[in-house]
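Slide 14.
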Amino acid sequence: MSKSVSAENQITEGSIVGALLAFFFPILLGTFFQQLYNTADAVVVGNFVGTIALAAVGGSTSTLISLFVNLFVGIASGTTVIIAQCYGARDFDGVRKAVHSSIAIGVVGGLISMVITFVGAVPALVAMDTPANVVPDSALYLHIYAIGMVPSFLYNIGSGILRAIGDTKRPLYFLIIACLTNIVLDLLFVVGFGWGVMGVATATVISQIVSCVLTMLLLLRSTTVVSVHPQEIRFTPFATRRVLRVGVPAALQSNMYTIANIIIQAVINSFGTNAVAAWTAYGKIDGLFWMIMGALGISVTTFVGQNFGAQKYDRVRGSVRVGLGMGLAIALACSGVILAFGSTLLGWFTTSQEVLDIALRTVHLTIPFYFTYICVEVLSGAIRGTGDSFLPMAISASGICFLRILWIAFVHPLFPSYDMVVLIFPISWAATSVLYTIYYLHGGWLRRRISIMGYAPEVKKGRAVSAGD
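Slide 15: predicted structure.
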């Protein structure tokens, strides 16, 4: 391969803490600006349009959008893992094939998602018992948002490609530009033109196109190992299978959260428009923690991917210890900040005292228990980084999806209150963390992946550790 190898790849050498932090902060800032997309939409419509509009861009709409965002991010994580492993192993032909297959997946997957949204938006909203006065604006937002699904998918794929080789800064720069574009257009379209929900949806689509164009232009013009050549964009069977084998379970894992939350959202909808608006406002504040933990998970996954490809298993295990420490610090800090300033933060989204009271009650029932979630993000990220995506999906299905559905089916009818619906969140975090911890400590996950990939066995205390040990 004549392409030059980026000097940015310092992941397989040196300090684990330094390498993880070098990944973490740019990804964190990137996810912050990504979160700011919908937060800006909620702030603008909540203050300049009204409660119905706020419920329309959040609530059921936000949950349905999450299904597709999780698909895009999940497949992109498959791209990141496979390219990181090939890059760490210096398999540059594998990198090239994974890059072009992933671009093809992004285009086709985005088009399919767009059609599904156009056809299924209204039936899905009705099935979720979305309040009748909210459905029209929610459907409008979803139909316009669908136009940006191909650009959104391609941005996530492109960012995953760049992050896999250690370039976390340029995806961040592009996202900042797109986010600022979204905020400016939100204000122009809603406050200036009076377009309401249509305005924030249009602003979001334009900003997604901006981030996609910037990322794709960079890859097209790149002279590195991840440069994109349009004539090579195709579904290379082996590379496509590898990306999807990791990406699809990762997407399903994330969507299990969303599917369970759709059921929960339907129950919350039954408590009326104020409850929906309160849940929307809470979700924007709660998103701070998930944004930060998501950045940590991506950092661990990419770090593990390259070091597993380079067969540096001590650094794989070391990144888990460092990641858990970072996760605990993040959980405690976020809990403290949100509990201390929750009323002020929630006040950005609503002027209704009743909505604010419900949202604050939600904060007090969930935020103190963030620490119970950290093993889910860090351990699943590490396991996925070795290319094992199925078992993390199965664990999340048991601890997150099925447990929440069982709670709604059997506990909620006995105690039909808003608070009892909310309590399933910390309960499911703790249960899933326990399952991940048991699997990580006793599941032989790393030895099994070493054996499957045909790598040299892990060495401990002067002896090789076989897959059967």
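Speaker note: The radius of gyration is 22 Å.
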